[in-house]
Design brief:
- By secondary structure, this protein is mostly beta strands.
- It is about 10% helix and about 70% strand.
- The chain is built from two helices and 13 strands.
- It has a ten-stranded antiparallel beta barrel with strand order 1-4-5-6-7-9-10-11-12-13.
- About 30% of the residues are buried.
- The N terminus is likely disordered.
């Protein structure tokens, strides 16, 4: 019978009891944002119906804004990265539609983005996440006037490709940049997004963020047309774990 040396048995036992390499441990973060962005753009509920326009200047968009918030999450293990974003915004508008008929409208948007990909090291502490995934939309609208009252809705899913770049500036400051594109006729005709924030590490696992986000979608189906965008300043609070 062949006997293993005691040192070999000890090494095998220690290897089994040792925790996984740090590079394989899961880590993550969750960020809650307030967003000063209402819906800007044009909304036509069906063919022949009046088009309701939501102003795109910041002051007018904020005046139209009823609510806007979004939450992002990220999970990482080694170079494997998963990203998610849940967005909700609602805007209302009253005015005139041709030929001078008074009308009021509401548009609410819900968007869920899920993506996964790989993290690359760009040097100097900068990381680049290359991601691919899907964005699911739910658009609800309502237009009322003395001559009509309609409440169309649309649900669709867009494929997207995204880049997420985190650049450290100092021990506590960093810049986070995110961009994605998609749609391409699969769900919407086209959708794109860009967001940039400056981030301050207030505590070991707590960050404060301020920046700008723009999310656009161009959708048409069966006479329902929505060509609009959400754009405005954001403030965020991030918890890492």
């Amino acid at each position: 019978m062949i006997r293993r040396p005691a040192t070999a048995l000890l090494a095998a036992t220690l290897a089994l009891a040792a925790p996984p390499a740090l590079a394989q441990d899961w880590s993550g973060q969750v960020t809650v944002y307030g967003w000063g962005a209402g819906v800007g753009g044009d909304f036509t509920p069906f063919t022949g119906a009046p088009t309701l326009s939501f102003d795109k200047s910041l002051s007018d968009v904020l005046e139209d804004l009823d609510a806007a918030v979004f939450i992002t999450g990220l999970a990482r293990r080694g170079d494997l990265v998963f990203f998610g974003d849940l967005t909700y915004t609602a805007s209302s508008r009253a005015g005139l539609v041709p030929p001078g008929i008074p009308a009021a409208g509401e548009v609410s948007l819900r968007a869920l983005t899920l993506a996964g990909g790989k993290r690359l090291q760009a040097g100097g502490g900068t990381t680049v996440d290359v991601l691919g995934g899907l964005r699911a939309w739910k658009i609800d609208g309502e237009v009322t006037s003395p001559v009509l009252s309609v409440a169309p809705s649309a649900s669709f899913v867009d494929p997207i490709l995204a880049l997420r770049v985190n650049t450290p500036l100092s021990d506590r400051w960093s810049v986070l940049s995110y961009v994605d594109v998609g749609g391409l006729g699969v769900g919407s005709d086209f959708t794109w997004q860009i967001a940039v924030t400056a981030n301050y590490q207030a505590r070991d696992n707590l960050f404060l963020s301020a920046g700008w986000r723009h999310l656009a979608v161009d959708y048409s189906d069966g006479g329902t047309v929505f060509d609009g965008a959400l754009s405005g300043p954001i403030l965020g609070l991030t918890y890492t774990f």
